[in-house]
Write the C-alpha cells for this entry.
Amino acid sequence: MTDLSITVDGIKFPNPFVLASGPPGTNGKVIQRSFELGWGGIVCKTLSLENEKVTNVVPRYGKLTADADSKQVIGFQNIELISDRPFDVWLEELRQCKEAYPDHALIASIMEEFSKDRWVEITERVQETGVDAFELNLSCPHGLPERKMGAAMGQDPEIVEEVTSWVKSVSKVPVWAKMTPNITDITVPSKAAVRGGADGISAINTILGIIGINLDTLRPMPTVEGYSEPGGYSGRAVRPLALRQVMEIARACPGVSISGMGGVMDAEDAIMFLAVGASTVQVCTGAMLQGYEMISKLEDGLAAFMGEKGFNSVTELVGASLPYFTTHADLVERQRAAKRAKAGQANRDEMWKGDIAKETDSLVTD
Ligand SMILES: Cc1cc2nc3c(=O)[nH]c(=O)nc-3n(C[C@H](O)[C@H](O)[C@H](O)COP(=O)(O)O)c2cc1C
C-alpha cells in the first residue's frame, strides 16, 4: 500500500484529499460519514456566531453542461450563503466528530463581521471543540459582501492582515486564510495574510459569474421569484484559473502551506494542484456531483501515479512543476538556444556523411 499521508503545519493528513467548505461538510453526521469513507480531512461549512442573520433562498444552484443535450456538467454555480445552522449546535457536532475520528483533520471554516471582538470570540469558542485548524473565509463572493464580509474583506489586503492577526492572537492551532479569485493579483492578499501570521493559504473560492439566462423569460439563473444575482462559479471549468492562482501563490509565498482547490473531479486534477505547490487538495463541487465515494478513486489514482512515476511520498510531488514556469522572454531564449543546438547537431551529422574512414582517422589522437 502506498503511503499517501502528508504532514502540513504539524497536522498529519492520512491522505491529501480534503472536502472543501460547502454542502459536503454541512453537519456533523456527514462529516463523520466522509471520514469513515477515507477523506483525509474536511473543512466544515462556514460558521458565524449568529445564524439568524443568514437566510438562504431556493433555488440556489445552477449547472453548465457541455452542450444543451448533454448531461456532462462542466461548471456549477451557487448563491448559497454560509451555514444557517445554530452556532451552539455546530460546537457540539465538531466536538463529537473530533472524538469519533481523532486521526482525521477537522478544519473549522469561520467568518465574522469586521470586529476584533467577534473574530476573537468565534476563534476561542470553536477551538475548545478540539478542531485541528481554522480556515478564514475571506472570500465568499455573493450575499455576504453585502454585509462587508467574505470577499469584501479578502479584496482588501489591510483587512486580510488585520483579521488574520486577530485570529492568530488567540488561536492555538494553525490558521489558513482562504482567498478570493475575484481580484487582479491574488498574491497581494495572500502576502497580507502571511504578514498577519497565517500558517497557510487556501485557494480558490468560487469565481463570480452568471451561469445563464433563461431565453424564454430572459430571467437570469438561478431564478428566485423572477430575479437573481451573480453567484460563485466552480467545477471542472475553473481548474485552469485555479491552478494558475495556486502557482502564483506558491511562488509569492515560499514556505507557506497551500490548500489548493477549484475544479477537482478526479486524481489527475488533484495531482496537478500538488504539482503547482498545494500540499492538500480540496474538493467541493466534485463531491456534490459524484458523491463522497469519489475518495477511493482519488486515492487509487494518486497511488498509481506515484508508483508509476517513482514518487516515494506526497511531499516529493508538492511543487514538482514549479521550476518549469518562466517568463515569455525566457521561453523565446530557450527556443533560440534549442534551435542553435539542433543546427549544430545537423552540421555534425552532415560531417559524418562523407568518407567515414577518413573522418574517423582525422579524429584519432596520435
Ligand atoms: C454550493 C457551494 C457552497 C459553498 N459554500 C462555501 C462556504 O460556506 N464557505 C467557503 O469557504 N466556501 C464555500 N464554497 C466554495 C468551495 O469551498 C470551493 O472553494 C469552490 O467551490 C471551488 O472548489 P470546487 O470547484 O471543488 O467546488 C461553496 C461552494 C459551493 C459549490
